[in-house]
């Protein structure tokens, strides 16, 4: 018997987004196709303003596409109303940004625990603690659980932010320039940490300007003229 291929986590087909400002409407995404399976790691490269963050915000349900189709598993969520989108966003996605957005008066563990408050109500203390410590452990900073952000390096803070994104066990991690504020070595470490999350079945979509970081992902796409072109990290699409 031929095994059935696994169901994709995400399937985007012909996704479009046009900006309707005061000037002429401008197509930012002109028909994006992308499939993400469990355990996939995907890099999206592209020049500044090409629409990478726009695409990530559509995938993460911060915004909705104008056209095309967005399937999450088998569910069509192309035109989901905001209330439902918010619930799905916190249940299914983890987000990592260039800035860490940690609360400086809370410890690393408390920062990670904050993500559990909104998503799952208050879990019993012991369960909450176990989840928080497991997330910190996963990114190699459990020993810093009691430290507050001002005492942590940039790379350590970003790892705490990744733990915060992982603690609700998202199906997909969306990272927008997560190494933008870090030096080269620290950035490399953070990319390794992000890549390692896919070993436990998380899907990862990384937006980056760094071709070396992109090359560490399983698939590399270039966004240009509103379309995703699959290629290698070194192949620069002429725009
Ligand atoms: N809310 C908005 N209002 C007006 N223009 C916007 C808005 N959001 C994005 N844009 C424009 O849409 C285009 C795509 O922006 P986007 O941030 O997605 O690009 P990007 O590839 O992520 O860029 P960068 O690499 O510089 O972060 C840009 O020209 C940007 O100026």
From TrEMBL:
Q: Which SMART domains match?
A: AAA (SM00382)
**One MF term in GO for this entry?**
ATP binding
Residue limits of the ABC transporter domain?
Answer: 10-239
Q: Signal sequence: where?
A: none
Keywords annotated in UniProt: ATP-binding, Nucleotide-binding, Transport
What the entry lists under PROSITE patterns is as follows:
ABC_TRANSPORTER_1, ABC_TRANSPORTER_2
Q: Where are the transmembrane segments?
A: none
Q: Which InterPro entries match?
A: AAA+_ATPase, ABC_transporter-like_ATP-bd, ABC_transporter-like_CS, ABC_transpr_LolD-like, MacB-like_ATP-bd, P-loop_NTPase
Q: Which Pfam families match?
A: ABC_tran
Q: Which PANTHER family match?
A: ABC TRANSPORTER ATP-BINDING PROTEIN YTRE, IMPORT ATP-BINDING PROTEIN
Q: What is this protein called?
A: ABC transport system ATP-binding protein
Phylogenetic classification of the source organism: Bacteria, Bacillati, Actinomycetota, Actinomycetes, Pseudonocardiales
